[in-house]
């Protein structure tokens, strides 16, 4: 539906043609919408929403004709510089927790979030109109501006009790903004369909937005975990190698097995005939390898790589239940060096052509592939397409704290129990291919000073190499400054 809006917008820049259009199917208004959505009843419902596909949707208290005249406050924040943060600094806060450290940490987060959000909002504002007016990116814009408005008004935190309320606000922020990553990916796919941004610009935009998102969430989650630890065990001293509660000691073999078991269960649920023939996971190398990392990030990267390897193997060697031969294994080699961990995942899934391999880590897609991916996005169970942001009658942003149902606010904000967009993406049916897994994994690997690369023998298989730097050896690197 967004395409109907964009095609009436005057073209203010040359169309960014990146692919050979002779091989691309023509784009229709409903190219990526599932056929079930095109019943007469559905068309009537869609028609009622046309007024909300323009630049000023009726449901938004932020996106209105006066918005840019209210932009002065934002521009003042854009002039400020985000404070560089390293893991060593975070570890220093957490080594021995005190009341003053918790309060200082709270005020750092309170001041830092509006600055980092303002930078990203300004980046969105400077995109071509036909891009930032995309429905999904407009949702992202509204979400960021909502948080910016709310957090810049929070007064200085002076007591532990005030920090507890602040933590509830932060916890709600993490929950309310879970849908942002999905909207960012879907926006990129629609931009690819419209070819309204060159591929290199789209990749740069997506990488900046994702790195900034990781930074903000790490800073927020670290403060929540510090506050939770102080509440439960104040003044406890941590070991010398401590990086923070959100970083856990990871045994590489255990995590590979855990993720592979989840991937296997997902495939067998829909292809029970493969149960006896399913590819095995063969692990070799330094099997005692341990390193500190954020488990959700690690699991997402391993999941996308292993899922791709298994899917390619099944497609290449057949899923016919008449076959009795076991499918070729997925082999993992683990190399544990002093400063990094290298993991090579090898499959016999037929490999990729040179042209496909060049595009595998790009967010920019061929319009035909982008339409298929977008259709799969719309079939993900429980996908949230409309924000649940709240405002006052005067338009001020509200971030509500959870309650017990009797009006009493819950004093619980455990990061270990938080829902995760990455978890939702991992739990989707495997046939809903999005084309965003490896590009997203590459951003996460790069954020932590690692690297994701792939080599392929077309007609045989692929080798995917994931290198992760041991964070303890790089704790003084300013990793969290990706504002």
If you had to describe this structure to a student in words, what would you say it looks like?
The chain is 46% helix and 10% strand. It is globular and about 65 Å long. By secondary structure, it is of the alpha+beta class.
Give a quick summary of the entry.
Its EC number is 2.7.11.-. This protein has 483 residues and is an alpha+beta fold.
Descriptors:
Butyryl-CoA Dehydrogenase, subunit A, domain 3; 5-stranded mixed β-sheet; mitochondrion; alpha+beta; disordered N terminus; two-stranded antiparallel sheet; ATP-binding; AK/P_DHK_N_sf
Structural class: alpha+beta
List the secondary-structure elements in sequence, H or E: HHHHHHHHHHEHEEHEEHHEEHHEE
Described by strand count, sense and barrel closure, the largest sheet is: 5 strands, mixed
Question: Could you state the oligomeric state of the chains shown?
Answer: single chain
Shape: globular
Write the layout of secondary structure elements.
Layout lengths: L1 H5 L33 H9 L23 H7 L8 H9 L3 H27 L3 H4 L2 H17 L8 H17 L3 H15 L4 H34 L15 E4 H19 L10 E5 L4 E4 L1 H23 L12 E7 L3 E8 L6 H6 L7 H11 L12 E2 L5 E2 L22 H6 L10 H11 L3 E7 L3 E9 L14
Parallel strand pairs: 2-4
Antiparallel strand pairs: 1-3, 4-5, 5-9, 6-7, 8-9
């Amino acid at each position: 539906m967004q395409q109907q809006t964009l095609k009436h917008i005057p073209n203010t820049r040359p169309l960014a043609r990146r692919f050979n259009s002779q091989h691309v199917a023509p784009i229709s208004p409903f190219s990526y919408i599932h056929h079930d959505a095109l019943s007469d009843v559905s068309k009537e419902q869609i028609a009622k929403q046309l007024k909300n596909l323009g630049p000023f949707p009726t449901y938004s208290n932020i996106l209105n004709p006066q918005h840019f005249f209210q932009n002065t406050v934002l521009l003042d924040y854009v002039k400020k510089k985000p404070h560089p943060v390293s893991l060593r600094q975070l570890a220093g806060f957490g080594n021995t927790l005190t009341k003053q450290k918790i309060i200082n940490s709270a005020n750092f987060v309170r001041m830092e979030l509006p600055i980092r959000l303002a930078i990203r909002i300004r980046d969105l504002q400077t995109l071509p109109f036909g891009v930032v007016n995309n429905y999904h990116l407009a949702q992202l814009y509204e979400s960021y501006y909502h948080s910016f408005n709310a957090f810049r008004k929070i007064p200085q935190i002076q007591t532990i009790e005030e920090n507890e309320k602040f933590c509830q606000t932060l916890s709600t922020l993490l929950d309310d903004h879970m849908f942002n990553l999905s909207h960012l990916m879907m926006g990129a796919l629609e931009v690819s369909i419209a070819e309204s941004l060159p591929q290199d610009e789209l990749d740069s935009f997506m990488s900046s937005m994702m790195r900034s998102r990781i930074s903000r969430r790490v800073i927020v989650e670290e403060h929540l975990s510090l506050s939770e630890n102080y509440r439960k065990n104040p003044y406890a001293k941590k070991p010398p190698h401590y990086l923070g509660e959100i970083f856990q000691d990871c045994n590489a073999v255990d995590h590979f097995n855990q993720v592979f078991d989840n991937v296997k269960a997902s495939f067998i649920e829909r292809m029970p005939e493969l149960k006896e023939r399913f590819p095995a996971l063969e692990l070799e190398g330094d099997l005692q390898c341990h390193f500190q990392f954020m488990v959700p990030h690690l699991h997402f990267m391993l999941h996308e790589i292993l899922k791709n390897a298994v899917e390619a193997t099944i497609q290449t060697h057949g899923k016919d239940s008449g076959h009795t031969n076991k499918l070729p294994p997925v082999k993992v080699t683990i190399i544990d060096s002093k400063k990094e961990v290298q993991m090579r995942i090898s499959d016999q899934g037929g490999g990729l052509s040179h042209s496909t391999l060049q595009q595998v880590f790009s967010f920019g897609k061929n319009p035909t592939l982008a339409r298929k991916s977008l259709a799969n996005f719309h079939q993900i169970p429980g996908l949230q397409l409309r924000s649940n942001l709240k405002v006052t009658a005067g338009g001020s942003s509200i971030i509500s704290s959870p309650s017990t149902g009797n009006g009493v606010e819950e004093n619980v904000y455990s990061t270990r129990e938080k829902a995760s967009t990455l978890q939702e993406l991992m739990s989707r049916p495997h046939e809903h291919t999005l084309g965003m897994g490896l590009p997203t994994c590459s951003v996460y690997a790069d954020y932590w000073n690692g690297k994701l690369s792939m080599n392929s023998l077309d007609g045989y298989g692929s080798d995917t190499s994931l290198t992760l730097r041991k964070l303890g050896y790089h704790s003084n690197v300013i990793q969290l400054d990706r504002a």
